[in-house]
């Protein structure tokens, strides 16, 4: 498949998080939409993709594997696209509880050895110990190609001593404004892996608009700089370009929001 890409390096301008330890939890961004969230003693893993390659896409960030996440209480699955619902990663992750996934996904996942599954409907609430998980809308095509099911994608609002919004894969939508004032930390997708992003995705400009709508206390950009097509195809001059552009736009449009740009494998306190 040609020479590998350079690993993403930490040269993105960002404001460093406070070094003061937090007793409520932390998160680790493993790359793409895979985030380990530790909140009030509960460990959640979003859209686990923890392999070196998915189909034609190769990992250009630091390596990650399922054992890096340890044992999690449950997995949060936003939709069934292969770069979010990666079957080998899902099977390999150690979890003590269910996969929480959109409605109409349970049968498909269980048939692939991935039960138990809790189907989540927008507006309802799922409790995991002291943490509540509420599915929220997402604007995205959720079909599992080429012939899989097409459940409605979702994001998640996770609430305990802190509140976290995981957007999954989405474009802008009006209901985002309803999250304003309720989110301590937002995990917002800002790019992808190709030459551009189409409908159903956020680019740095639209992601910055999402931040302005939601006004979280802290924003962490995700879904960038992790996978790419092999050379010579390159979506940006450097894999970190989307994050740099996003950082500039957030600084201009939402100066009251703290920006934390992580590189894959990096952690931050909540």
Structure description:
By secondary structure, the protein is α/β, with parallel strands linked by helices. The protein has one domain: Metallo-beta-lactamase, Chain A, CATH 3.60.15.10. It has four helices and 19 strands. The strands form four sheets. It has a seven-stranded mixed sheet. The chain has a seven-stranded mixed sheet with strand order 11-12-13-14-15-16-18, with helices on one face. A three-stranded antiparallel sheet has the order 4-5-17, with no helix packed on it. Helix 3 packs parallel to helix 4 (241-253). The radius of gyration is 17 Å and the shape is globular. Mean pLDDT is 88; it is low at 1-22.
Output the CATH homologous superfamily.
Answer: Ribonuclease Z/Hydroxyacylglutathione hydrolase-like
**Whole-number radius of gyration?**
17 Å
Percent range for helical residues? 10-25%
Terminal Cα span: 39 Å
If you average the pLDDT, what whole number results?
A: 88
- Classify the fold: give the CATH topology: Metallo-beta-lactamase, Chain A
What is the CATH C-level name?
Answer: Alpha Beta
Give the overall shape, derived from the CA principal axes: globular
The count of domains is: 1
* CATH architectural designation: 4-Layer Sandwich
Oligomeric organization of the protein chains: single chain
Strand content: 25-35%
Biggest beta-sheet profile? 7 strands, mixed
Content-based structural category = alpha/beta
Uncertain spans, ≥5 residues at pLDDT below 50? 1-22
Number of DSSP strand runs:
19
Structure in a nutshell:
The protein has 270 residues and is of the alpha/beta class. It is built from four helices and 19 strands. The termini are far apart.
């Amino acid at each position: 498949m040609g020479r590998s890409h350079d690993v993403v390096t930490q040269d993105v301008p960002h404001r460093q998080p406070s070094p003061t330890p937090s007793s409520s939890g932390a998160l680790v961004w493993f790359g793409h939409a895979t985030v380990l969230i530790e909140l009030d003693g509960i460990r959640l893993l979003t859209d686990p993709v923890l392999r070196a390659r998915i189909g034609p896409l190769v990992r250009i960030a630091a390596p990650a594997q399922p054992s890096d996440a340890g044992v999690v209480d449950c997995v949060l699955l936003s939709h069934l696209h292969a770069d979010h619902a990666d079957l080998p990663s899902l099977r390999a992750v150690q979890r003590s509880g269910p996969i929480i996934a959109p409605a109409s996904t349970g049968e498909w996942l269980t048939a692939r050895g991935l039960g138990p599954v809790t189907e989540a409907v927008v507006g309802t609430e799922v409790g995991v110990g002291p943490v509540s998980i509420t599915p929220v809308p997402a604007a995205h095509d959720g079909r599992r190609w080429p012939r899989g099911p097409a459940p409605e994608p979702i994001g998640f609002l996770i609430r305990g001593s802190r509140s976290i919004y995981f957007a999954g894969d989405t474009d802008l939508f009006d209901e985002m404004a309803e999250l304003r004032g309720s989110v301590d930390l937002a995990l917002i997708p800002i790019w992808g892996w190709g030459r551009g992003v189409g409908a159903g995705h956020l680019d740095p400009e639209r992601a910055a608009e999402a931040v302005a709508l939601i006004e979280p206390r802290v924003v962490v950009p995700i879904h960038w700089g992790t996978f790419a097509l092999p050379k010579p195809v390159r979506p940006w001059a450097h894999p970190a370009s989307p994050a740099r552009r996003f950082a500039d736009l957030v600084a201009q449009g939402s100066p009251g929001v703290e920006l934390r740009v992580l590189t894959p494998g990096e952690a931050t306190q909540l």
